[in-house]
Amino acid sequence: MESTTITPVSLTAGAIKEIHRLMGEDGFDKTQVLRVGVKGGGCSGMSYILGFDQKQENDQEFEIEGIACVMNRSHEIYLYGMQVDWLDGLNNRGFTFKNPNASNTCGCGTSFAV
After folding, report:
1. 20 to 30 A Cα–Cα from 18, which one of 9, 26, 69, 101?
2. Distance, CA of 82 to CA of 48 (rounded, Å)
C-alpha cells in the first residue's frame, strides 16, 4: 500500500473534531482507520461509505489532521475533491458530503449519480 501527501477528499474542522471524538471513545479499535468510499445503491445510484475499517490490499492511504484514512483506488474517480462535513444542529445532525463529481444528489444527501 502506497501513501500519498495529496488527499483525494477533505474534512472540515467540524468533521475532524467529530472523528477525533469518535476515535477517543472507550473501546475504539486503534487498528482501524477511517474508510471513505462508495457502494452501489441508494436512491441516486451510489451511496457514500464513511466508517472505521481495516486497511485492504487495494487501498490508497492518506492522512488528514492526524486521522489515518484509506480509500479503494477505484473509488477516487467518484470522490476526488469531495468535502466531508459534520452538522450538529437541531434539524440536521450527521456527516454530509459535498461532491463535485456528482451529477445528481438525492434529497437526503447520502447517495449520488455520476
Report:
1. 101
2. 11
Q: If DSSP codes are grouped into helix, strand and coil, which group holds residue 75?
A: helix
C-alpha cell at 49: 461509505
∠ at Cα 15 (110, 46), nearest 5°? 20
Q: Is the model's pTM score more than 0.70? A: yes
DSSP 13: H
Q: Would you kindly state where each structural domain of the chain is located, as residue ranges?
A: 9-108
- Block means of pLDDT (10 residues each) for the chain, length 114 residues? 71 97 95 93 76 95 96 93 91 87 61 50
- What is the residue type of 55? K
Closest CA to 79 of 44, 52, 39: 39
Distance CA 29, CA 68 (A): 13
User: Residues 47, 62, 34, 9: is their CA dihedral positive or negative?
Assistant: negative
CATH number of 9-108: 2.60.300.12
